[in-house]
Design brief:
alpha+beta, 5-stranded antiparallel sheet, 3 helices
Length: about 200
């Protein structure tokens, strides 16, 4: 009886350790943001902590320079996980599961006709409030018809954004990327020098 109890105790300890290990691994993977998450009906869940990822750059298309309403107003802040950026720099192609986040921000206190403002550093364009979120996900099996990328719009408006978004049609997003950035993995790398910088 004593031997059996000892064996049982060891087995319980081992099981508890394994459960703790797998629980830790699962939590760590989720915290690291290692891939997209979907709802039961196929919508993409808003990525978590994306502002903690690598910031690769920001283009700006002011409303004032685009007939009063830019297609994506106005700053475009783009983020990607560091490991995915490293892979791109080595191969020129993003790995499966890559998520690119583009968060829009309006200009801060535009004073001049072109939307610029005068600040301590000089006249220019400065970021104000967040105003929208677009996300792309690379998955060749799921999005093979749109160049291996899925495109999602979580709303072009002030915070909060939608918690989940359905895939945009090819006409809405992918077609433009396929036509203009087809040779660079559907990514406009010419606007983000960090993607090809060697040091």
């Amino acid at each position: 009886m004593t031997v059996n109890k000892g064996i049982l105790a060891i087995a319980l300890i081992a099981a508890a350790g394994a459960a703790s290990y797998w629980s830790y691994g699962s939590t760590t993977a989720q915290a690291a943001g290692t891939g997209p998450t979907y709802t039961s009906d196929g919508k993409l869940v808003l990525p978590k902590n994306y502002r903690d990822w690598t910031f690769i750059g920001a283009t700006v298309t002011p409303n004032a320079l685009n007939g009063g309403k830019a297609g994506f107003p106005e700053f475009h802040n783009v983020y990607v996980e560091a490991s995915k950026l490293a892979a791109y720099r080595k191969t020129g192609v993003f790995p499966e599961g890559t998520i690119l986040v583009k968060e829009l921000a309006l200009l801060r206190n535009p004073k001049h006709e072109d939307g610029s403002a005068d600040e301590a550093s000089g006249r220019g364009f400065f970021e104000g409030s967040f105003n929208g979120l677009d996300v792309t996900v690379k998955d060749s099996k799921r999005y093979g018809k749109t160049g291996n990328w899925g495109f999602f719009n979580f709303g072009h408006h002030a915070l909060p954004y939608e918690s989940a978004a359905k895939e945009a049609s090819k006409e809405e997003c992918a077609g433009c990327h396929m036509g203009g950035a087809g040779k660079t993995d559907l990514t406009w790398i010419q606007f983000y020098p960090i993607m090809t910088a060697k040091n």
